[in-house]
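Much of our argument rests on the idea that a fold can be written as discrete symbols. This step matters because it turns folding into a mapping between discrete strings. The record that follows shows the chain in one-letter code together with its fold in token form.
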Amino acid sequence: MTGLESIINQIAGDAQQEASGILAEAKGKAEKAAQEAKEEAKRQADAILQKGEQDAKEIRERAESAAELSKRNQMLSFKQGLIQEAIEGARVALESAPDKEYFDTLLQLYKRFAQKGQGELQLNKKDLARLPDDFLGRMKKAVPEADMHISQAPADIESGFLLVYGGMDINCTFRAVFEDAADELRDAAGRLLFPVA
């Protein structure tokens, strides 16, 4: 082997050794980068999974809350319907009460709404036909300061009466009285139908 061959072999050996070192270092860096990427991917996967679980929990909670609200709204609507039926039933019962009870109720309304001075009480055609003979006397006795007479012309009302004082009318029909007292009636009916334990 000549000197030149020996130098070439030396250079080739050094190059091989240096290439092996570079290769080993690159392989180590690649393995480290792969391990770091694997760890980062696991961290990201865990974070995504945790966020997914949290999102799912929040969706479940919102769905449960919405279902509960819907249930409460349906129950409230049902209760309001029952209360309205009870109130309407009470009004119809008053309108269809026997004559004595019906006119006793009218007298109570008259006591509540009659005012001082001259006026006229107007009834519907059906009530005028069944008006008790002593009703005007009972009215005068119940509210002596009111100077009322009963109109012989029928009013266009379902039940109850109208009080007319000059230019002022007081609507004492059962429907109007029930509408004026709607909140109180709903509260009372609610307490009767759904007592709080």
